Amino acid sequence: MYCDSQKVMAPMKFATAKQVVQDLLVRLDIQINSNRPWDIQVDNPDFFTRVLGGGSLALGESYMDGWWHCEALDQLFDRILNFIRYSKSKAHQCPKQVKGLYHREAALRYRQPPFFHYAG
Fold this sequence. Notes:
Blueprint: H1 4-13, H2 17-26, E1 41-42, H3 47-64, E2 68-69, H4 73-89, H5 96-110
Antiparallel strand pairs: 1-2
């Protein structure tokens, strides 16, 4: 028996990193290369792959490397953090990728030896 859902789901397997990031940001009312102050202006197309692979650390490093900019960083991160806080109460609705932006960096810190931060 042929199932139409297989036909509909097939393109999702091959979504580009940009499409995945855009789909996540839509939930936060953040757009890419739009004119609102909290929207992300992407200057390097590799930004999307880097952020999906590296989480919040990659987001910060790519900003420092000049891969993206935002007129109002405070408003951008307010939207992101409010979404994460709201999603904690509804954990089943929070996409894995958004949870990863918040938790991946913390998980890496716990694997480091305690003297790591004090080594010169």
